Amino acid sequence: MLTVISYDIKSDTRRTKIYKALKDYGDWVQYSVFECDLKEQELLKLRHRLDTLLNKEEGDSIRYYHLCAECCRKIERDGGTMPKDLSTVIVKKQR
Amino acid sequence: MLTVISYDIKSDTRRTKIYKALKDYGDWVQYSVFECDLKEQELLKLRHRLDTLLNKEEGDSIRYYHLCAECCRKIERDGGTMPKDLSTVIVKKQR
């Protein structure tokens, strides 16, 4: 399942930590937006990790948009990187 | 239909113009993310307007995530504003 994760982090240090944590799980598509193809277990683990890095009193926030296959196909963009195309599977030739 | 619009704009002037354009159409939920409940026609008009404000050569980008009712119900967040709840309709008492 594709999850779009957008974050609003008030301090540069915390934002860098959040960015580094997300880098292990998905594609950085905009300054504060990642697209992550995650299993349920991975999402729980990631969400717990990110939650520990947040300072909600200072106004930090993270939003999780879980997209079904149909909503994934409807992603549109002007400029920036191509949306992740989950419908194509790259089959590596056996040598 | 709820559309999540996230933008990455390199110049403050253009970003302000994009913000002002989006303010007419939906809720500002994070620094560069809006949630807009739009009809097809409104989306086309908004997208055209935003496209004219972009400078793609400088790296500006906008992403549109169109969420079905089921994906709307699954929006999650840590910190920040409540996701738009489209299932509740506020009925004004007739006086």
TrEMBL record, chains A, B:
A Gene Ontology biological process noted in the UniProt record is: maintenance of CRISPR repeat elements
Q: Its biological function? A: CRISPR (clustered regularly interspaced short palindromic repeat), is an adaptive immune system that provides protection against mobile genetic elements (viruses, transposable elements and conjugative plasmids). CRISPR clusters contain sequences complementary to antecedent mobile elements and target invading nucleic acids. CRISPR clusters are transcribed and processed into CRISPR RNA (crRNA). Functions as a ssRNA-specific endoribonuclease. Involved in the integration of spacer DNA into the CRISPR cassette.
* Names of required cofactors: Mg(2+)
InterPro entries hit by this protein:
CRISPR_associated_Cas2, Virulence_VapD/CRISPR_Cas2
Question: What is said about its interaction partners and assembly?
Answer: Homodimer, forms a heterotetramer with a Cas1 homodimer.
Pfam families xrefs = CRISPR_Cas2
Which keywords does UniProt give here?
Antiviral defense, Endonuclease, Hydrolase, Magnesium, Metal-binding, Nuclease
Q: What protein name is recorded for this chain?
A: CRISPR-associated endoribonuclease Cas2
One annotated GO molecular function: RNA endonuclease activity
Membrane spanning residue stretches: none
Record has Hydrolase as a keyword: yes
**Taxonomic placement:** Bacteria, Candidatus Moduliflexota, Candidatus Vecturitrichia, Candidatus Vecturitrichales, Candidatus Vecturitrichaceae
Q: Origin organism of this chain?
A: Vecturithrix granuli
Residues annotated to bind Mg(2+): D8
Recorded E.C. number(s)? 3.1.-.-
Recorded family membership: Belongs to the CRISPR-associated endoribonuclease Cas2 protein family.
